[in-house]
Write a structure and sequence with these properties.
477 residues; alpha/beta; pyruvate-formate lyase- activating enzyme; nine-stranded mixed β-sheet; four-stranded antiparallel β-sheet; 18 strands; Elp3/MiaA/NifB-like_rSAM; Coproporphyrinogen-III_oxidase; rSAM; Heme chaperone HemW
């Protein structure tokens, strides 16, 4: 117990900044799955773990006009209308192929992510929503949120698309802002999203009366100062979106910034002071904290799909780069590394009804418990984990929870409910990493070590200086 407490206290004292834990296990822990493992079997077994079967639906559109330097998501650069048509046909086919999975559960949320799905035209979304009508006719009555990702320039260039989506039931748009300081926006590779375009996009969203505008800011851009951070926070508070996220910049080894070695970003414990400023400023402006990265206006804001996924509601991910989170296996049907060739393979396989889980992670009872603990300590009743054997396995988790309680990150209620304190929100990702299993830690280490070595070899081959990241192993996970 003392060793765990000392380890956690050490990370807090160092101001370690791990990447945001939005999923467990992380994608880096995925490995090839047996060919015999079928999606239907995965989801049939998942039903046995839920007294009230529910579902989040994530639909992935990988296309972008440009690639942000810090992005390591599954995206490809394309504005080819024929490719868009073929992809939407494939996505709708995949939705129909999962009719039984969807109909066996109450549909709670629909999220169209990417990429930049707002690049698609109205007819693509009409086709998509018509397919949902076919598969789950009452979906507009049951879902609590219909959301899409967009860039500011895609909103400004095609406001009619957003207008049509709102008419079809859209309730939230995630519009990536990252900064309201022009030089920081340019340095991040977001030249198309200058401050004027950002403000124009927000004005369009307001005019169209979308219920929930969600935006984000990033701490740690090269050249960012305390003053420039405060400027972005203050200006965004004045724009008053319903939902705001603030992230520490993480440049993973598979992002362009890391592969080239030309962008040196901050990994400074002092960034927690920027967290403190944003936390205080947004709360003064009437926001409440939904997670360690997100603030919302009560009654309107928030990110319901993420909240429900953290609470254990499974997520069916469809599309070339989508990940599915079930209680039995987390998986992808496509490759981890995106390419137009891979997107073409997805389209072909969907047309032929041959898509199967390719990479993923098979969950044991222990990993099921770790998933909830890693993601859901904001407010979790530990009795929910009893069906997976929590009492018998408590020795694996209680030392971490006890240390967190002793250090003021966690409070326990008499009903066996645990909740993060304000400091727990602040350092939530450090605490979450402490709950990763040895297998996930080792898989993660091996994956990123391979990427680092590959990047070093590539830069050496073209005569670029090799810069070794200063991240600690704990923060790198």
């Amino acid at each position: 117990m003392n060793n765990v407490r000392d380890e956690l206290a050490g990370y807090l004292a160092e101001g370690v900044i791990p990447p945001f834990n939005y999923a467990y296990p992380s994608r880096s822990a995925y490995r090839p799955l047996p060919d015999s493992l079928r999606a239907d079997d995965i989801w049939a077994r998942d039903l046995t773990h839920h007294t009230v079967p529910e579902l989040n639906l994530y639909l992935h559109v990988p296309f972008c006009r440009y690639k942000c330097g810090f992005c390591n998501l599954y995206t490809v650069i394309s504005e080819d209308a024929d490719v868009y048509d073929a992809y939407m046909d494939a996505l709708c086919t995949q939705i129909r192929d999962h009719t039984e999975v969807i109909q066996s559960r109450r549909l709670r949320t629909v999220y169209i992510g990417g990429g930049t799905p707002s690049l698609l035209g109205p007819r693509h979304f009409e086709q998509l929503f018509a397919t949902l009508d076919e598969v789950y006719p009452n979906w507009r009555s049951t879902v609590e949120e219909v959301a899409i990702e967009a860039t500011p320039d895609s909103i400004v260039n095609e406001p009619a698309t957003l207008r049509g989506l709102i008419a079809m039931g859209l309730t939230r748009a995630n519009i990536g802002i990252q900064s309201l300081v022009p030089q920081e926006i340019r340095a991040a590779g977001r030249g198309q999203a200058n401050e004027r375009v950002i403000r124009e996009a927000v004005a369009i969203v307001r005019d169209l009366e979308l219920p929930n505008l969600s935006t984000d800011l990033i701490m740690g851009f090269a050249g960012q100062t305390d003053a420039s951070w405060r400027h972005s926070v203050d200006e965004l508070a004045l724009l008053a979106p319903e939902t705001i996220s603030t992230y520490f910049l993480t440049v993973r080894p598979d992002a362009w910034f890391s592969r080239t070695g030309k962008y040196q970003y901050m990994w400074d414990p002092g960034l927690y002071e920027r967290y403190d400023y944003a936390n205080e400023r947004f709360k003064q402006a009437g926001y409440v904290q939904e997670s360690n990265v997100r603030y919302k206006r009560l009654g309107r804001g928030g990110y319901q799909q993420k909240v429900l996924t953290f609470h254990g509601v499974p997520l069916l991910g469809l599309g070339a780069g989508a990940r599915s989170y079930s209680s039995t296996v987390d998986y992808m049907v496509g490759a981890v590394k995106p390419s137009m060739a891979e997107v073409g393979e997805y389209i072909r396989s969907a047309r032929e009804h041959t898509l199967t889980p390719r990479t993923g992670f098979v969950l044991t009872d222990e990993e099921r418990m770790r998933k909830r603990l890693v993601l859901d300590l904001f407010d979790l009743d530990l009795r929910e984990l009893d069906r997976f054997g929590y009492r018998e396995s408590a020795h694996l988790f209680e030392p971490v929870l006890g240390a967190a309680e002793e250090l003021g990150l966690l409070r326990r209620l008499p009903t066996d409910r645990v909740q993060l304190t304000p400091d727990g929100f602040k350092y939530r990702d450090i605490l979450s990493w402490m709950l990763f299993s040895p297998e996930v830690i080792e898989r993660d280490r091996a994956y990123y070590e391979g990427l680092h070595h590959g990047n070093a070899r590539a830069r050496k081959a073209i005569g670029e200086p090799v810069r070794i990241s200063g991240l600690t192993a704990k923060a790198e996970r």
